[in-house]
């Protein structure tokens, strides 16, 4: 798995694919994945390319520099290069509900995901025994409106010490402050228990019940400073009927939330998401 | 098909089902369908019952009176009795788009639905040739904001002359006036091309495109005086991706709209919908 | 939650609902759930009724006898009476894969299900650490074709000692013997990783890949002596594409399998399933 | 819309994309669509590329020859080149049921599809009035087992006179002979009313009802000489319950069949399908 992954976007122009694939091929890289997409409205080119580094002529630590010099600067590219060997480090934020937590733990423990989860952060003690079952350090920050300014910097310090790459809010019921959002741009993944943009904010299942919808949804998105308005990664719905009480909606929604969140995290781990102007390009 | 259908709701109390099924059974009716539902939050009982009239002791034209005297008044029931032999009469309202129109015509022509469609009303000439293919009178009322007060009474007169029971707005792009809505309470069915309550109002596919959702939806509902806020009958969604342009959303949405609208109309024709407090109970 | 649940089916005849609801009402039971269904092809009546026992005149331990004498014998009813206070006892069978196991454990630990899981049985040691995390005794019976006749009676003895009501095969990769199936009729729930009856038997994802289907499925069913042919409880599918490898199908299928199995187990726990002639009636 | 579309597959090797996109770019073609896929199991490369011909240096009638000489022969490519300006010509085969017929006609009449439908062929008179509504010549060949060898050559002659490119079997209930299949390889599209490979052959809804499945499906595929076994283009399912009779399955299935078939036809019209070893690659 000595592979590199290049994610980029830039203004579209003819010949980009040819030029970029050529860069890999002439330097003895073997392309094993290529997907690209042109947004003709925005005139923007998006690409994800993965290649084997074994015989690649450019040393790994120089790839980014070379690519920047030879292509990115010339074409106004925004790009990131990832290496398969570097496991992303994820912080899991939870509150009291356990369904998303267990779904993530099950995948992590079974080795389904290429990720490290060095710590879990919560505002409640409730899931400590569950976290300890999986041997993951559990830190409680009892955040309130009043102490947020004091406690959040401690949280951020802890994240920094653990070299956290991205954060997953697994039904973490607190609003994240602007400082933390800005420190992890497009690297905080939330699950909202509605089909956004319907039912923004608190108690979406109650809102759905009152409106009498026939499907309920869940939405995973990157967190931005505007509540429930960040770039959407994944959504799904499940059918309900007039027979379902609010409690039924909450129960049916749990399965939706955990699957939608886990699929979004997986896409993020595979470096298959590019966010552009509050929308996402999701490569297959 | 000499059957009666009873649709009712009333405050819940013990013994209602027993009492109501007994009414049919002791009078020699054979119940062929019974579904009931108790909303424990609203403490409201809902029921749909269908029975054969062949040996029923109460004459058809007296059933409503007897039922009212013996049960409805006592239990504060809201009820309606329908007879299978009476085909509902439907007015179809269209504008320029034909997909919902053809889906309804195909079912009507194939005899799938127990309905009469004596006329089609439009604000444009566009679908006249299509309507004439199916031999249905096509009336154009070129409604604008300015002439609405003048033309709508003529429309309503035409509906009355044709003994119209209910109206289907098959992507009819005009807002119905309060007078007409009040004349057909819970008898005007609309299709809105979004997953309501997301993207209320104009150009929902453009709104969906801008927000970057991963699913688009369609919603069929009874029209009330508040725009796109009436009781929802049916909803469905289809998956989209970043690759879909607004035109792709419009095209994919058409299949959704026509199926969702036709399913809602079918439920209405089968007398399987009860509206209560801006929500619907849909019997199977 | 001092409720009784009656599940029954019998040849259809007029007046059954009235008679049965009357039985509860006149004896001061408060019906809180009633659903019934008539299969007009089989001329069979199915019903599920739940009522509060607090003021019910017939003592709990006599209900079954009274009901049998007064109604069941007369109408050739097959019936079962359950009490909410008696938690069903479930044995979980696993092999090496953990996704269904964790999904069930998460629900059990979170208290979502009204069930006791006194033991886990496996033919492999692999999931012992996972089981121990949840504090549930884990028994290994290393079954092979050769020793099955020797080991299975020991398994059945263990199940008996633990008063097991029903068995869930959570991707347990062994074929259950006729003796055990007959000891737990319609009380062994399996998950098969295909949309049955497509791809019966071994390696269904490989079969699906070879056939080039565009959706893969999962099916939960009661185990009968014919392989993968028992009454189906729940099925679902997920979209795949030509881009998915066999490993992708296996991964995507896991989410499907765990949700489909858990939903089937939940319906069983709620006593909402009636099996009749190799098909199931599933009450809402 | 003066565009060319290239569909190809060949053994995979490094540098193909670079070489192929370069071919367009250096000859002043503007690529507006590119999608490619590598099947690592089969070591096969698949590509679809569309480009504008306005300034393309190679004359349209020479493109195929040049491409063959310069690339295809060298890389053992199977390829086809289509031109947007050439509308495909489609023959529609129907029997008695009209739902797929109307769905196709509605799209055709509304101009949604870039296609010509010069004739409709049937083994029954039933849909003649419906066909005449849309002004399309309707030819009846009352095929039976006995006269098939006599009538099918006449059908094929008629298809030839009309320069038919591909055939759509819209619930045409006859088995196509090997001669006709071989004359239109991967150019006869069928809709089978089941989730293949479940319920191959006659009366799939009856089979589904008997098996007690919880979802029914529809499958569109290219016709090969083995019954219901050709490469699958599109599939979908809809949820059913024990309450659905066989007639309900037939009715619910109709919506599924028409949408699945129309989506398959649309993909074919857009030249987005490549068939390889009895499976399809479907480009987005």
Task: Write the topology of this structure.
The structure is a homotetramer of 284-residue chains.
Chain A: E1 3-11, H1 16-26, E2 30-39, E3 44-52, H2 63-75, E4 78-83, E5 89-94, H3 99-109, E6 116-122, H4 128-133, E7 138-140, H5 148-161, E8 166-169, H6 178-183, E9 188-192, H7 204-211, E10 215-222, E11 232-239, H8 246-269, E12 273-276, E13 279-282
Parallel strand pairs in A: 5-6, 5-8, 6-7, 8-9
Antiparallel strand pairs in A: 1-3, 1-4, 2-3, 9-10, 10-11, 12-13
Helix pairs in contact in A: 3-8
Assigned CATH architecture of the largest domain in chain A = 3-Layer(aba) Sandwich
Radius of gyration of chain A: 21 Å
CATH class assignment of the largest domain in chain A: Alpha Beta
Biggest interface, chains and residues, is: A-B, 31 and 31 residues
In terms of structural class, how would the helical and strand content of chain A be classed? alpha/beta
The CATH topology label of the largest domain in chain A is Rossmann fold
Write out the CATH superfamily name of the largest domain in chain A.
Formyl transferase, N-terminal domain
Q: Tell me, what's the shape of chain A?
A: globular
**Record field, number of beta strands of chain A:** 13
Through-space gap between termini of chain A:
19 Å
Helical coverage of chain A, percent range: 25-40%
Please work out how many helical segments of chain A DSSP would assign.
8
Oligomer: homotetramer
What is the count of distinct domains of chain A? Answer: 2
Strand order of the largest sheet of chain A: 7-6-5-8-9-10-11
Q: List unreliable stretches of 5+ residues of chain A.
A: none
């Amino acid at each position: 798995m000595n592979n590199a992954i290049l994610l980029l976007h830039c203004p579209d122009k003819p010949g980009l694919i040819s030029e970029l694939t050529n860069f890999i091929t002439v330097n003895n890289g073997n392309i094993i994945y290529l997907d690209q997409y042109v947004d003709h409205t925005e005139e923007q080119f998006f690409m994800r390319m993965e290649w084997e580094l074994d015989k690649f002529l450019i040393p790994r630590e120089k790839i980014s520099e070379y690519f920047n010099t030879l292509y990115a600067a010339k074409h106004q590219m925004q790009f990131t290069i990832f290496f398969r060997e570097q496991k992303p480090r994820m912080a899991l934020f939870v509150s009291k509900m356990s369904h998303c937590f267990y779904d993530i733990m099950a995948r992590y423990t079974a080795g389904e995901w290429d990720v490290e989860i060095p710590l879990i952060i919560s505002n409640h003690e409730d899931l400590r025994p569950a976290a300890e079952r999986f041997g993951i350090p559990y830190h409680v920050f009892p955040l309130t409106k009043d102490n947020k300014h004091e406690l959040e910097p401690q949280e951020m310090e802890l994240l920094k010490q653990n070299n956290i790459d991205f954060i997953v809010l697994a039904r973490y019921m607190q609003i994240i402050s602007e400082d933390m959002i800005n420190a992890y741009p497009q690297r905080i993944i939330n699950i909202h228990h509605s089909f956004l943009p319907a039912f923004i904010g608190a108690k979406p299942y109650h809102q759905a019940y009152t409106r009498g919808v026939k499907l309920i949804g869940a939405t995973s998105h990157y967190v931005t400073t505007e509540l429930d308005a960040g770039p959407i990664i994944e959504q799904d719905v499940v059918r309900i009927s007039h027979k379902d009480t609010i409690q039924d909606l909450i129960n049916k929604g749990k399965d939706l939330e955990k699957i939608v969140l886990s699929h979004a995290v997986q896409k993020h781990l595979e470096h298959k998401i590019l966010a552009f102007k509050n929308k996402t390009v999701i490569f297959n």
